[in-house]
Amino acid sequence: MQQAQATFINIGERTNVTGSARFKKLIMGGDYDTALEVARQQVENGAQIIDVNMDEGLLDSKEAMVTFLNLIAAEPDIA
Q1: How do the domains of the chain map onto residue ranges?
Q2: What pLDDT, on a 0 to 100 scale, did the predictor assign at position 76?
């Protein structure tokens, strides 16, 4: 019988328009290149998972999410 091991997982939460004023400003302004650097910095600082949230009433959340995730997927250092 195997026992489950408790493992710490570091989750980066700076790519969240409701939790990070800086990230929200970048996304609302269409500055996806700098927003991508926010994700990259989280990975460089040890994040194993990145929590991406684009839920904002004044934003086309679906389009923003698809755009940002496609950019992340194209970056080997982040994906």
Answers
A1: 11-73
A2: 92
